[in-house]
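Repro:
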Amino acid sequence: MLTALVPLSTSRMRRAFWSRHRSFQAVHVAIACVLVPTCAAHVITAGHFVHGPGRIAWYVALSGAALFALLRARANSDPPANPPSLLSRMVFSRHSRKILVLVVAASLATVAMLSRSSVLVLREPVVARAAPLKVDFPHDRHREVNCIECHHNFVDRTGNGGCFSCHRSGRAELRLGAEARFHDFCLGCHRDPRPAFEHHGPTTGCSSCHLPSARSTRTALHTDCG
């Protein structure tokens, strides 16, 4: 979308594709309306720079302000006697209604990302992997965390064996897959740790948890716990 916005904004490209400047503005703003919530989905879902309720709320508010800033009014030197309607005051001419609908829809889509369940759904991979990535989980560095925080099936007896045996089983009550659940669980604990945890390390990049393809797994237990 960015590569479409930048070249199409040049004078030569505008004249080649659009005979009217208002039509160009409408297409340009429509692409931007899709770009803003798409960027928000990437930034909020990844959680590298924007995590925690406060920062996510600020990011959503700024995204909404950017969307409504795309709405432009006509420049009238002499104000008319009868105030015009909102649509007639916009510069997009006959496209004004569509642009307004796009801005409102994009704003609602961005606000929906305030919900934790929406973020988890967005973390689901578009294409499922044939085989899970190998995970190197250092148990010795997590001794201050109770084992049942991760291995809850030891207590509630909801499953046997490793985590994947349930979270990849397609059970109806487990609507989210293993990738979304584990990423949320691990990243949430590392980036927003509990006050009782005196020592915790940040997670940066996939290699912090996943083994490179050249290396073999240390034990089957490490892979199952991933």
